[in-house]
Structure prediction request, 448 residues.
Amino acid sequence: MLDLNQLRKDLEPLVQGLAKRGVQFDTERFQQLEARRKAVQVETETLQAERNALAKRIGQLKSKGEDASEALAQSQQIPVRLKQLEQDLSQVQAELSSWFATIPNLPHESVPVGESEEDNVEVRRWIPGPKDDQGKPAHITFEPRDHVDLGEQFGLDFEAARKLAGARFMVLRGPLARLHRALAQFMLDTQVEEHGYTECYTPYIVNASTLYGTGQLPKFKDDMFWVTKGGQDNESTDPAESKPEDLYLISTSEISLTGTVRDEILAGDALPMRLTAHSPCFRSEAGSGGRDTRGVIRQHQFDKVEMVQIVHPEQSYEALESMVGHAEHVLQALELPYRVVQLCTGDMGFSAAKTYDLEVWLPAQDTFREISSVSNCEAFQARRLQARFRADSKARPEFVHTLNGSGLAVGRALVAVLENHQQEDGSVIVPKVLRPYMGGLERLVPAK
Prediction:
């Protein structure tokens, strides 16, 4: 959430920042709500002063033995009006909070202005092998097969998944299931052992308050899977409404990792916090339409290793660059060509102030596809979560900065390994770093 107190001092940066994201801020509505709020506060303060003056006058009259009935009658009317004003103020503040809960973060000044992914800016690319004249990877010299054709040889089964749960799910068996597990374990070990993250195991089901804090609610409720407890009716049918006891499957473990600092005041020396978790993620893909209907790219359930950092505000952009490097390290170890792209203002996520996407090369699609997104949310999530720190024991609490990123999406990494390490005979070379997790297996070979 944006800083209301700062906006009351200077609204123009908000208007300009949101305009860069293609969001038109209703200045007139804000000014009307602020005028109502100020009027209520002024009347409240006036009545409180009048109540104090009447109390003093009543005391003086009684001490002199004079009639205080008129002053008493006046003083008895004030609490009724104050209660009404309190309700009016709560209503205005609730309307402001509800409105601002749907307004995205402001972009950092370094973010390129644009409308869509077409306006994103490539920062660099890493291609360990040969390239074609367009700078694309050219290490596969035969007609590449896609991950579906390759995967079905090794245990990828969409028909079984469709029978179990419907479209956009998968069943993995045998060597492919083992490769999927190896990827997740390698990613987790890398972030813990080489980059200093603390491994966490967190709930896959969270409440509405946690999702509000990280920015998924209320705006993106339709993208979530809602959970109904057995024996209880779920009365919340309006996507715009959520109760604290409403439960949801996580769409990323960013939610649960970042949510661990909700309503906390951390010691300054506890920062930075580096947290990581391997978890399944669940997304309804309500707005995906007919995109990526073939294969593993866009699933309702997928695994991801997530990185989260909770840092001092002055260190958040340094942390952002380091987190991008942590994700790149995994891709390089897997020998997967990729590029780093800075997202433009129109393509960033709701809570982000600045985002880099890492896109891995998929030979069968002849394109780069997102495999990691790393964002600095600055204090946007922290303000919603009330996550703060004290620089020292006497300092006033300040909001932390929160960052998150994939390290990496396991299913898409599986796709990339299959397609980039495929051989002309249909086999797939297992990357060297994964072989210890695969019992020393060097190659997946189709059954004859």
About this structure: The longest strand covers residues 301-311. The mean pLDDT is 92. Residues 33 and 86 are 15 Å apart (CA to CA).
